[in-house]
Amino acid sequence: MAELVIGEGMRVSLHFSLKLESGEVVDSNFEGDAATFIVGDGNLLPEFEKKLFGLSAGNSATYTMPPESAFGQLNPNNIQSVRRDAFTDEFELSVGLVVSFADAAGGETPGVIRAFDAKDVTIDFNHPLAGQSIVFDVKVLSVTPVVTH
């Protein structure tokens, strides 16, 4: 029987880690339960998923993903200034604090406070990993066809 490889219509279980080029681990499940997903279900960024195509159970690989293939470049338009009085006096501002804001669609958008003074608060709405290359390590545990009835 031919060995199954990752591609469309496959369920994949794997261990992975995401690291910055400095070696700092951003996310990893090597010490825990495997991640399982169906190719194309949106659980992995498309460019990360494409790197897995052709791998089979037992394969390990490491890929360095440039910002464009990972979490995007930093967009200066996503850094915005908000008046300090938009926050209550009781709200303790601190640099690096993640704050959730209502968006136009009624959902929530997280932003990171980058700076503040008595008048303004600078908030960064870029993804926290935007502008960074990501080292993607993967060990494929199983590849099985998705069975539909």
What is the distance, rounded to the nearest whole angstrom, between the alpha carbons of the first and last residues? 23 Å
Overall 3D geometry? elongated
Round the mean pLDDT to the nearest integer and report it: 93
**CATH fold call of the largest domain:** Chitinase A, domain 3
CATH architecture assignment name of the largest domain:
Roll
**Strand runs, count:** 9
The helix tally amounts to 1
Assign the CATH class of the largest domain: Alpha Beta
| Count of discrete structural domains | 2
Task: Tell me the helix content.
Answer: under 10%
Q: Report the β-strand fraction as a percent range.
A: 35-45%
Low-confidence stretches: none
Cα-based radius of gyration, to the nearest Å: 20 Å
Main beta-sheet strand count, sense and barrel state: 5 strands, antiparallel
Series of H and E elements: EEEHEEEEEE
Q: Looking at the chains present, what oligomeric state does this protein adopt?
A: single chain
Q: Please identify the structural class as seen in this structure.
A: mainly beta
Describe this structure in words.
By secondary structure, the chain is mainly beta. The protein folds into two domains: 10-71 and 132-145, Roll (Chitinase A, domain 3); 76-124, Thrombin, subunit H, CATH 2.40.10. 5% of the residues lie in helices and 41% in strands. It has one helix at residues 46-52, and strands at 10-20, 25-28, 35-38, 60-65, 79-83, 98-102, 108-116, 120-124, 134-145. Strands 1, 2, 3, 4 and 9 form a five-stranded antiparallel beta sheet that branches. Strand 1 and strand 2 (25-28) form a beta hairpin. The longest helix has 7 residues, at 46-52. The mean pLDDT is 93.
